[in-house]
Amino acid sequence: ETSAFRTHEKTLLVRPEHLNHFGGLFGGYMMKWADEMAFNVASLTFPGGSFVTRRFDSFDFTAPVRKGDIIKVFACVESVKTTSCLVSVWCLNARTQVQVFRTVGVMVNIDASGTKAPIPALR
Length: 123
Fold this sequence. Notes:
- The protein is α+β, with helices and mostly antiparallel strands.
- It has 1 helix and 5 strands.
- Strand 4 (84-93) and strand 5 (99-109) form a beta hairpin.
- 26% of the residues are buried.
């Protein structure tokens, strides 16, 4: 990955409670983990910010994830605007290095009243 900002990662074990009725990872868990990673990376990159999710592009799952798989979810700030930042999020099977999905989210900085606010300067 090439970005001016640090890439963050989270390693997860896929457990039985994460599975759908076909025995694969329920997509909602992956979307939840992706959203958490986007929030984390925006918040860690700009520690004075208070971020909420504005939107995500499509989630195209390109490889199945099964019980017992170990996955790594990555996130990195790609670009910064006045009140928002674009965050790339992707997932790999940790054993096979096969990509599971890739998407992009927009995280918006808000003030105490819930209004868009400028992203704090980097320290």
